[in-house]
Amino acid sequence: MTLTLSNIDYNISPKFRAGVLGGTGTVGQNLVLLLANHPWITVVAIGASERNAGKRYQDVWRNCRPCPEVVKDIVLWDALQDKKKFITGDLDLVFSALDSELAVQVESDLAASGLAVFSNASSHRGDIDVPIVLPLVNPGHLELVKIQRFYAKSGGYIVTNSNCSTAGFVTALKALQDAFGVDSAICTTMQAVSGAGNPGPHWNQIDSNVVPYIPGEEEKIENETKKILGKLPVSAEQAPALDAHTCAAEKNTGKETDGSTSVEHQDERPPLSDASSSTSGRGTVCAVYGKIHGIIPNDQIRISASVNRVPVVDGHTMSVSVKLTKPPLDENMKLNTSAIEEAFENFTFSIPDMDKLPVIPSKFIQVFRSLDEPQPKFHSQIGNGMTVSIGKVRACSVLDVKFTLVVNNAILGAAGGAVANAELAIASRILL
Amino acid sequence: MTLTLSNIDYNISPKFRAGVLGGTGTVGQNLVLLLANHPWITVVAIGASERNAGKRYQDVWRNCRPCPEVVKDIVLWDALQDKKKFITGDLDLVFSALDSELAVQVESDLAASGLAVFSNASSHRGDIDVPIVLPLVNPGHLELVKIQRFYAKSGGYIVTNSNCSTAGFVTALKALQDAFGVDSAICTTMQAVSGAGNPGPHWNQIDSNVVPYIPGEEEKIENETKKILGKLPVSAEQAPALDAHTCAAEKNTGKETDGSTSVEHQDERPPLSDASSSTSGRGTVCAVYGKIHGIIPNDQIRISASVNRVPVVDGHTMSVSVKLTKPPLDENMKLNTSAIEEAFENFTFSIPDMDKLPVIPSKFIQVFRSLDEPQPKFHSQIGNGMTVSIGKVRACSVLDVKFTLVVNNAILGAAGGAVANAELAIASRILL
User: Fold this and answer.
1) Residue A265 a catalytic site member
2) Judging by DSSP bridges, how do beta strands A93-96 and A16-21 pair with one another?
3) Residue range B259-312, pLDDT digits in tens
4) Alpha-carbon distance B15 to B35, whole Å?
5) Compositional bias (Basic and acidic residues) at which positions (chains A, B) (predicted)?
6) CA B402, CA B393: separation in Å to the nearest integer?
7) ipTM of the complex
8) Which CATH number is associated with domain B164-233+297-407?
9) Domain B16-161+415-428 has CATH 3.40.50.720
10) What is the pTM of this model?
């Protein structure tokens, strides 16, 4: 076992064969659109609900863009009943855009059968051995799949991308953390209707209205941000040896510890988990030298989110205030907002040439210096939906700095995030 | 001169004769609707732009509700050219819904001519001797008109109501301040299009979009909130004597000081003022025993606002986080959110029987305990638009408490606020 992320190679052939679960929903269709002419990946199977199983994909397609030629004749499988077809279908990987309730078991079963699962569902994001990866922010967390592989022994694993709002928010926080350190952040979201999937809310509930509630969303933003900004349990240098030998010995004795015994995890907060962890039988913990083999969330950063659904078709907008550890000051000891804009603008790859991953944009963050930008209607397609737009950087008289952020919830915050993770796994030879 | 607000009497007759400036705009029409069948006030004159002067009011009426019978035949005056008609028109008071640029001079001239001006314009809100009054929050600030009367010698004065967002925000903060003390607050607004007047933004700019900018709005929310939560410069007991004697002596010697010499105003922030103060010749300061004769803003409270325009017809929504001086805790030392809900619910009149003022509702704040309320579409008409809706009270992991607030921007935040101020002035015998 070698250090995966130091083996990056962008020359990939032949193509990887992929299945898409939940291919008829909003995220599923976006996945297919992103993969239709992908240089490294070919979609060969699409799963849908029982109602649509057996139909040709183009006959259930409902999108403002036409159904891609290369997938239009694929006959849909039942994502639940035809699970074995995915397992025995000679697939290299599966993308999951399933509803979270379905995703819990289906994704676990597919991973246990040896498949690499790249999931947009929230079901397994809280599992201690499942990483939430944003290649722009925490590519190294992909290494966590080694833990999963070790336990599953099948070679399969689950990699998740974050909640849609989190994708934009954590990108901004990571840029600030690298440059100035982040103490705490308050964000208010104004989220697009497309984030609620199809058909989404009833017209009279959302037209000319603001709905200050999206189930589970505030907790997702707060917890996922801390996990993404957290650290791997052991250093990269130690990981292979520990995985191969020490953990194996532990496993054979049946010894397990929970996160509360972790030396590096002494506060009162339990390790990230959700109801689905136990349901799915995932979340196994291996203690080595008092360390848990899962991401250690960054509980030093305090996050408070208030979420709202607004009558916008695409693009989530957020008003964010952040307290920095070392805020940049100008000669008058006022906040140096230019330094913060530069930190956003200069936020770049932690992996060389990462924009050779097909969906990764050359610029992670587009900075606006006008009074009234960014706006979701006009800026959510920058970088083909993979670039975060940030503007209105100004001093906050309660914390340190405030700004407005727009993230494409359907691409960076969903389908694009999942595809980026698969690309990273392919280029880093985690997916062979 | 007596203490005005101790002389409250709700038996009013005969009716007061009012003019409405800017009567054809959104706020102006709402003023006329509120005054059409008012028990204490009769609209006898309406001012409009030069374009509409000379027309009958019903011929320029554009509102989803019909033009009230009692005003439909009023022939419009030119708010600028016919200023003398308002001055000599036997009016007891004038409501101003003028654009701020026009309001600066017109309102000053009318006040200097002896008229009581109740203005929704922002032009004079920063003037040191002009109060921003919300009868629900700071009725006592109405006493500041005594300072204006003293200097003008005409008996005229200007009373403003707050910015639309501020009206809801400061009501919530006042309830919290009274119960627990407020250290600081961060608010993100999602403001309705009606707040931009008629015709407001272009459709393509706001449909399915969020615009994170409203000129001057963030500064208004921050500064007006501090002024409304500020205090009168001298105690009510001292005020009459100081006004009549000490200030007069000072005035005769031509001595003036600015706020920076004030003993009670030692921080770096200059006293509230805006460009219009000097333009209008208002904002005169009289120093008595080192005190300024204007509201002393509450600069102890730190406020940070982020404003957004959203595609909503009516009703401003705000996500608010507040740090309390003494947060209520339960037996587990967690935030006692029920105590905060009760503080909102119990927030009541500082003046006995104040709901005998015709537009004042019996309940200032309606508390919601459901997951997804309040919402602007369904809750901005509570209390005929004069009640603030608050819900989703929960702990904030960065400050102390967060909640969602809906305020009717057109009524409590504009026309209703101005009418309430006039009613308070009438009932307290400030307007005779």
Assistant:
1) no
2) parallel
3) 332 323 333 323 333 333 333 344 444 444 334 568 889 999 999 999 999 999
4) 11
5) 252-271
6) 6
7) 0.88
8) 3.30.360.10
9) yes
10) 0.89
